[in-house]
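Supplementary Methods S3. Complex input for the 2'-monophosphoadenosine-5'-diphosphate-bound model.
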Amino acid sequence: MTDQYVVIGNPVAHSQSPRIHAMFAAQTEQDISYEKRLAPVDGFAESVRAFIAEGGKGANITLPFKLEAYELADEVSERARHARAANTLSFSGKQVLADNTDGIGLVRDIELNLDFELKDKRVLLMGAGGAARGVLLPLLEAGPTRLTIANRTVERAIQLAQSAQHQPAAVRTDVSACGFDDLSGQRFELVINATSSSLSDELPPLPDELFAAEALAYDMMYGKGLTSFLAYAEAKNVERLADGLGMLVEQAAESFLIWRGVRPDTQPVMLALRKS
Ligand code: ATR
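Predicted complex, serialized as structure tokens:
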């Protein structure tokens, strides 16, 4: 019998995940099906239970259900616990196991695809919502010298930085929090936009100088053309620009590995997505 997987979200029509997993399955000769499933905003848990009853093996979870996915799980991974959110569920009988592959997807895209080593780098993480929290622990584990979290609402950045304090991964890294105003005079080798500002074509109020020499500007969003943050970086003569498509494919590959025990090759999948 073909093993069944879904991505559950609301909205979910735009999701690239079925395409990505179909390419992974073909490449690794795995017999799986992978579909989109729209859950009512107030009916996430019911949708998961219904899918389990149909014999489903696993699910990716997208907005706005990542927090609920974490909460309904019987067992959670360390990275899901720190993110307080899950994007990958595996079903074993009626047991639900939750994991979060967003952060490792980001780190793999930066280190392997973009060939940028995080160790000993100064990193600025912009944003302190779910997207930022989801990637914080894997970023710290990669060993940057400094990780500065900047957010419009400074209090949220402070809380996020505090959540990292007890992490063994944070011992090598100077973690701090601030508002965008406090960034002037500082330079970073990597600036990651984890705010949702690009969705509305906006930009956090950034100082004139922000990027160190040969810096990488990374926007976790993706879409047609450059996001407003990447356009800002380009205008500042940053040559290394990356959107979140690589992260999307890498987090999917980690989910596939959890479910199927094989790691697919992400390069051809990324190329195919870029072409379309
Ligand atoms: P997500 O799960 O995508 O992170 P979220 O929890 O609503 O969504 O968080 C959105 C993030 O984008 C927050 O850090 C938010 O800043 P605030 O905490 O101050 O609200 C940030 N954000 C959204 N629009 C922004 C803008 N135009 N400029 C700067 N930051 C913005």
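DSSP finds ten helices and twelve strands in the chain. The chain has two domains: 3-100+247-275, 103-243.
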